[in-house]
Amino acid sequence: xxxxxxxxxxxxxxxxxxVFLECVQDMDHENMFWYRQDPGLxxxxxxxxxxxKMKEKGDIPEGYSVSREKKERFSxxxxxxxxxxxxxxxxxxxxxLDRQTSTDTQYFxxxxxxxxx
Amino acid sequence: QKEVEQDPGxxxxxxxAIVSLNCTYSNSAFQYFMWYRQxxxxxxxxxMYTYSSGNKEDGRFTAQVDKSSKYISLFxxxxxxxxxxxxxxxxxxxxxxYQKVTFGIGTKLQVIP
Lengths: 117, 113
Known about the structure:
Largest interface: A-B, 22 and 26 residues
Structural class of chain A: mainly beta
Helix content of chain B: under 10%
Strand content of chain A: over 45%
Low-confidence stretches of chain A: none
Structural class of chain B: mainly beta
Number of helices of chain A: 0
Low-confidence stretches of chain B: none
Oligomer: heterodimer
Shape of chain B: globular
Radius of gyration of chain B: 14 Å
Largest sheet of chain B: 6 strands, mixed
Order of helices and strands of chain A: EEEEEEEEEEE
Helix content of chain A: under 10%
Number of strands of chain B: 11
Distance between the termini of chain A: 37 Å
Mean pLDDT of chain B: 92
Order of helices and strands of chain B: EEEEEEEEEEE
């Protein structure tokens, strides 16, 4: 079974702090994703990565950065946390399948509920 | 207008009922259609995916896609309390050389014993 783990289930930080959210997958997946999930807004893609040291902006990258130094690990960084970044953060990974013929089945971690005070 | 519309519910049904969950979409480029289930305080897990219009069945679950109407459905037969969760529809398109997945906001389902 694919396992995606996230470093913390719950996190409380103060405005202006630098926050690191870590995600590790154990199935040698090429693709990794960071989403945030908010009531009424659903899942929104922040950043994704298709390879080590590679990153692409998603729909809402502002205020975030990412790092992928190893294939199994994808980190989300909040350089200076703000209250509007209070949310559930979900990491996902998937295989790099033939993009023209097969969908990109994503496996999600349990999520990190971040509160910024 | 959102690309994917999904009624957030909540939807409450008695055990054993047939449940119908639906999403509409506006982007004709969507090729793959998926349903994820998310239990409280957990990450989403893939239930089913389909390509193009038609039906796909997996046990008590049936996914239906009508591309002409831009409408997808998930039916759950003989619903069980363990089916109580939030169900997210998701759709993907190939853009810029990769697959982009767009999720609905999820419908919260409660199956009452």
